[in-house]
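User: Quick sanity check before I run a bigger batch. Here is a single chain. Can you write out its predicted 3D structure?
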Amino acid sequence: MRLDKNFLSISNLANIFEGIHTKVTDLYEDDRVPENELVDIVKRAHDEWKEAERLFQNVSDPDLVDHAIFRVEAAKARYIYLVKKAKEEGARANFY
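Assistant: Done. Predicted structure follows.
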């Protein structure tokens, strides 16, 4: 008889864990960004990076050179980060 109680307990635990897993999975999927929106975000980040590079190429004031370099590096880092995240999310696009 004791074996049956253990079996019931294990069965109940399995059901509880399955319910928790389902809820966590649902929460995770709700936080995902739609693929087309994710691709748009990455493309905007790429445009910002290219704009920062244009600023750097056209800056003539020596005091603004450091600022322009910072903007290029920051925009590039953001773009690379977003491409990695998009790929992790399963977005299928040519980002390069």
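Helices lie at 2-31, 35-58, 62-89.

User: Great, the batch can go ahead then.
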